[in-house]
Amino acid sequence: QVQLVESGGGLVQPGGSLRLSCAASGFTFSMYAMSWYRQAPGKERELVAAIDSDGNTNYADSVKGRFTISRDNAKKMVYLQMNSLKLEDTAVYYCKARYMGWAPYWGQGTQVTVSS
To answer: What is the model's pLDDT at position 101?
Structure first.
């Protein structure tokens, strides 16, 4: 069955870096657009970064220049490299897979805490 499993979260100081990974299985990964969302305490879930099946990317304004999304279709993996982390980046980060307008798949999330 379909699975999206996030990893790589943890506690980091402001200005530090983390690399999140999402392992996909159970679907034709290369055909799907992949994205990272996050949900901070008391906030709605928001799009952080997305990469389509052609490798085109887009980012939330709040993370542009700091975060990079990438994918490896052979490994069925999507990554989020997070640099220059800020306190406001603290959230649960979720991996999402989407094909056209069909209902998406979601991972369970991984906690990222930025704290001094």
So the answer is: 87
